Amino acid sequence: MSNTTPRDTGNPMNIEIDTRPLPIVILSRWWRFPVYLLLGWILYHSYFTPPPSGLSVEGFRSLVVFLICLILWVFHLLPLAITGLFALVAPPLMGVLSAKQAFSFFGSEPVFFILGVLILAAALLKSGLSSRIALFLLRQSGHSPKRLIFQILLTASLLSFIMSEHAVAAMMLPLVVVISKALEFVPKGGSYGRLLFLAMAWGCVVGGIATMLGGGRVPLAVGIMQEAGHTPITFIEWTLTVIPIVILLFFSAYLVLTRFFKIDVESVYEADRIISERVRELGRIRLEEQFLLVLTMGAILAWIFWGTKIGMATISILVVVLLFMFKVVDWKALEENVEWGIVLMYGGAIGLSSIVSSTGASRWLVETYVIPHITSPWMLIGLIAILTMVLTEAVSNSAVVAMLLPISLSFAGSFHLDPKVIVCLIASASGLNYTLPMSTPAIALAYSSRYLRVKEVVLAGLAMTSLSWIFLMLTAKFWWPILGIQIP
Amino acid sequence: MKSPLSQPLPAEGKESTNTGLLKLELIASGINLGEGLPSPLTNPFGLIHLILPEGVSVSVQQASDKQQTPFTLLHHGKRFFLNFSGKETPVQWVPPLKCYHKKTRSGILISDILTVHSGLIAVHPKGPCRFGLSGLACRYCGSSRELSNHPPFSKQDLIEAIQTVLKETSCDVVHLSSGHVETEDGGIVWLTPWVTEIRKHIDILISLDLAPPKSNSWIDQSYAMGVDAVYYDLGDFAPHQVTGNKKSEEDKKRYLETIEYAARIFPKGAVLSHLVIGLEPMGDTQKGIDLLVERGVVPLLVYFPPSPHSPLSERWKMKPEEVTPLYTHLFERLVQVKNTPHWVHQQDVLLTPLEGRFFSEKSAGFHLALKKFYETGFGRKVRRSMIGIRRRLRVKHHPAGYR
Ligand code: SF4
């Protein structure tokens, strides 16, 4: 905000005084209230309005609730988690279904899978194991600036295979700050400083789509798919489906970064020194860390081999129980490190999408407004991918999934598409954002270093988005059929 | 200029007493006491509180032997009069607050904690300041250096004292002085717990007397924590050079930046600065007024005769009627730049900027109406709510680590 008072390091209270003219301040602070009123009025009004032909009363009302939740999610009118809760209570309030039925959606399997994964990520972070892995991967760049960039990208990517990408970014950021300081970069300084932070963020983004552990959006998508009555994608199926995209994007990210940003340092000897120093400080791997490592590996194997048989959520909760049985972490530390709100958001989103499809609302919407304009399945796939990628730059990844998937799943039937195509498309594309800080915590954290400027990232980001779309289409065309996912 | 006490009111155009001038004369020369006046007549600080025509409040000292005053306070039946030049002007006498003699639960006399100046409760938890020590008889905290040397009291004592005062009379503002400590924060850190305690227990406006801080963030913090107005005094580089310590150009620049910044943060009219008048050529004071007004600050012109034993008394040359153009200039400049001359709407030890209207041709209708409204119970509530809402809107608290 240009008109707010300057930030001053002497202020201990983190206060900012908005000195813009009062009407503007009022508008910026209170614009939400008229919007709330309007949304309330829409809900109230729709309750008494007859549905359009071809749509049931319940379908119409659930569509209205869905629309309202979309607005709340997209414009951040409420925290994501609170909108998730609203999505659970609004349908019974509108008489779409009973409160008992609505709340039962919250107990769906993917919600508990996500819960377990978040707790495991917090344990990795808290125990220091994730930093140890990061430092191990970062060692020995051979003083080469390009190699250091490659290693940061690789470390962030690989760690995002087993932890949610925002946890990886949060863990790696201090490390990258220390490295950039050791190389005597200052914000707004040389371009190599920017490169370091962007490599970390893009590494998280690219690696984050590789497994179901990289973020909540894949489990969310699987949950929505399951609630809509389709056979869910398994852990290994997912990774196999997207791995070519991940590999292609990984190398593209390295090339784009090193082409678009000038490498204005000769040697990164200081960075190597710092990393070695950190490794030395860490000392020998502790027993807890060893146990955690084994447990994480065990969990991944269990998800791969028994995920379908005993349930993804069962494994993830079992891992949590083992964590506590062997006192690897304590509850207090976990409480502070787990994003509990995300779990609430997922519960609400899965419930709502299930209501929208079970009442026939999504099918009606698609058949009435979309199908007449779409001529081929490839046109549909291409458009969905573009729409998801554009939206995900501005809206949180999970919100994009909650928004697009329930409706898009209805396309699948109409075009004789395997629902897995739609799920893989939206769940992967929603994670591929490279430019704006509001898109994902990893990018936001990179910006928080104050090294990056949106303007500079835009071109490189645009190149990555275009490449992502191309790779997604190529994978769908040539790789997915090999896995048995056919597109007519 | 006509005889001070028969100067016509510009608005009325007929021969009558100019209330503004009358107030200045009374502050400057004190008052003689007639026969049969009630007892106790003064508050514990020796001040007699009178309401002059048009509701103007003034606190007057009994004239000493050295002072020659034309004024005598008379009492006929239930009514009080000011006698001067053979003419009797009706005035109201406000009996001293009874609560001054009460004690807090810990045994501190309320008059040792605070002084009430028609609507403004002055507190100086830290002790006497440069003014108090300079020999200028600043009367907020008890008019003399001896009286501002109070025994220490706690926050609890202060809350009890304010609550006791509010039971007896209505007040708008609690004014706390930091004693003008020259620290990096300007004294705000020291005053913070006092402000917090008052905010927690009492619904009242709070103003602080501070030294300009070294960084603007302290100004943000003062406003965010619930301070409604601040007084940053011109200090040593004021045109009149009260204490004679010249500060560097850099300090002066910093000071001016500070007050300008504060005026952007606080509501209109709520950044004030005392400006002592009567010790230097009028042109210099006028420059001081312009300097402050241009930066959005409201100067409060202080016309206090120094105590006779002070070396400053030598320099005290200006008579009340000579300084009135300064009040006129101040009032008209404030109206011209659309600043608020009524943040301090009642002050009995000095002439408020709005009282400069007594010497001006310009209409003060709007400001007077607002002042009158703010003096009603409902008006006080509205004013406090509006100030509170403004703060809620303007202050943004960021999570730790935001910077
Ligand atoms: S300026 Fe404040 S502290 Fe100083 S003498 Fe006056 S009232 Fe007391």
Please outline what is shown here.
Chain A has 488 residues and is mainly alpha-helical. In chain A, 72% of the residues lie in helices and 1% in strands.
If you had to describe this structure to a student in words, what would you say it looks like?
The complex is a heterodimer of chains A (488) and B (403). In chain A, helix 6 runs antiparallel to helix 14 (287-310) and helix 8 (145-162) runs parallel beside helix 10 (191-208). In chain A, 72% of the residues lie in helices and 1% in strands. Chain A has helices at residues 22-30, 32-48, 57-74, 80-93, 99-104, 109-127, 129-138, 145-162, 165-182, 191-208, 217-227, 235-260, 269-282, 287-310, 312-325, 331-337, 340-358, 361-370, 377-394, 397-414, 419-429, 441-448, 454-479, and one strand spanning 15-17. Chain A has 23 helices and 1 strand. Chain A has 488 residues and is mainly alpha-helical. The radius of gyration of chain A is 23 Å and the shape is globular. Chain B has 403 residues and is of the alpha/beta class. Chain B is built from 10 helices and 14 strands. Chain B is globular, with a radius of gyration of 21 Å. The termini of chain B are far apart. The complex binds iron/sulfur cluster (SF4). Iron/sulfur cluster is lined by residues 122, 124, 128-129, 131-132, 138, 140-141, 148, 177, 209 of chain B.
Low-confidence stretches of chain A: 1-12
User: Structural class of the secondary structure composition of chain A?
Assistant: mainly alpha
Give the number of DSSP strands of chain B: 14
Gap from first CA to last CA of chain A: 50 Å
Proportion of strand residues of chain B: 15-25%
Oligomer: heterodimer
Strand order of the largest sheet of chain B: 7-8-9-10-11-12-13
H/I helix tally of chain B: 10
Distinct small-molecule ligands in the complex: iron/sulfur cluster
Mean pLDDT of chain B: 83
End-to-end Cα distance of chain B, whole Å, is 59 Å
Based on CA atoms alone, the radius of gyration of chain B comes out at: 21 Å
Low-confidence parts of chain B? 1-15, 239-245
The largest chain-to-chain contact, stated as pair and per-chain residue counts, equals:
A-B, 20 and 26 residues
Considering DSSP H and I runs of 4 or more, what fraction of the residues of chain B is helical?
25-40%
Tally the helices of chain A: 23
* Global outline of chain B: globular
- Number of separate strands of chain A: 1
